[in-house]
Amino acid sequence: MNDVSSDLSEEVTAPRHFIEQIIDADLESGKHETIVTRFPPEPNGYLHIGHAKSICLNFGMASEYEGRCHLRFDDTNPAKEEAEYVESIMDSVRWLGFEWGEHQHNTSDYFQALYDYAVDLISQGKAYVCSLSPDEFKVCRGAPTRPGTPSPSRDRSVEENLDLFARMKAGEFEDGQYVVRARIDMASPNLHLRDPSIYRIKHADHHRTGSEWCIYPMYDFAHGLSDAIEGITHSLCTLEFEVHRPLYEWFLEQLDVPATPRQIEFARLNLTYTVMSKRKLQELVEGGNVSGWNDPRLPTLAGLRRRGYTAASIRAFCHKIGVTKVESVTDVGLLEHCLRDDLNPVVRRVMGVLNPLKVVITNYPEGESETFEAKNHPSDPEMGVRAVPFSRELYVERDDFMEEPAKKFFRLSPGREVRLRSACLITCQDVVKNADGEVVELHCTWDPDSRGGNAADNRKVKGTLHWVSAAHAIDVEVRLYDRLFKVESPDGDSDVDFKTHLNPDSLTVVQAKVEPAVAELGVGEPVQFERMGYFCVDSDSSPDGLVINRTVTLRDSWAKKGK
Q: What is the pLDDT of residues 177-192, one digit of tens each?
């Protein structure tokens, strides 16, 4: 049984989707007593948010029905797979809140069994060794509206095919010299049934089996048979595999397998302003467009986690989008909404100034300071309070000052009084500029009787600003992350390189001033900078300095742009 975090059960409250209805019927009919699902990633890259939907579905179904979910690595292509990816995948699945117990498997565990199944097919006359190259066979295969032409190798004798296959296994031939094909139907309207390849030669060391094998099974052959070996009851996969299902079932029907799993397809997750192709993500990583697989701008689970996303927010997102058979594109704003919903009630508040403008309180004694009490959360008293230092010189946000204020601008301007959060009321008296006319300093006065933030005579003050004491501020590097692409569908046009849509402003680095409480945060710990958004400490932090990531703004700033 899966060790799923307790809040997951509370998330599963929607009306029963079509997969649940299928499982309900299978249990009621007695077809199955225990539900067994699997999550089968290929270890050739890091998992992304699209995989999270499959993870939540497969492990979620197993948990809901008190069954089990296997984690099985589809490691049949040694040229692209690495142990690093295996570790990252396991780490991401666990981070999402799921465990597989003793059921961590690999397709490579079954290489001998799969080879034996291929020998069985050849012995039945249902598979053969083909000499055609992929390009040559593509011509033979024909089109959906036109029957294919049989390969010249299709009528080899069983004995010759068995001999060639054994010699392929022994390493006698070069890569691509032969493949093994299932002998099905060259006139089928489903091209996947027109003698698909099931084994190819690949002289490459495998990260688990080393040089033991030089032939490797193809996905369509290995996947269903691996499901059968493991006793999977429901093989849940995305809609692009729907046309592969007849082939999945054909292999199970031809061979003596220990179980007959059922493949069920659901719509994959597509997000605006995002690419979900692992190949394209790898292109961004290897091309230096991002800093690595865990770059906080990527939709990889490692990147989202580093940026400050929580596992609960991603599970909630996957729950909200639901499980259907209808392809659609989800607004990335919904993912950000789920994150804000998760963080808002539990994350403490601090103050940080991202674009500092110095304020001098001219009527506050030089060399002195005091502390004000600030709530760690505006609506949760149990989160307590903290002491925020105050002194003659402060920093406020540069955008919170306007020398000639626009209509409905209620923040700081000459002659205007504003509130400093949890501290006092100040009034701007003078503006200091440099030789270029840039405002570099404000001279203000404070009302000593307004300690705590309210005037003694209860006069109304509309503007409230966040701030930090200059004498006590901590200098930090803040990385302001935005969407990686500037268009909703960056890979929507196959004739245009998706990288041309990269957002040049997806990362902005600023030197900020923050209150001392920020130094108490651990790596990955979330916090809200009041009025600015949610942030977390990045793993690049060191004893020499904190690096802070902006996880998400308080509101969807893209919606205001009208896209």
A: 999 999 999 999 999 9
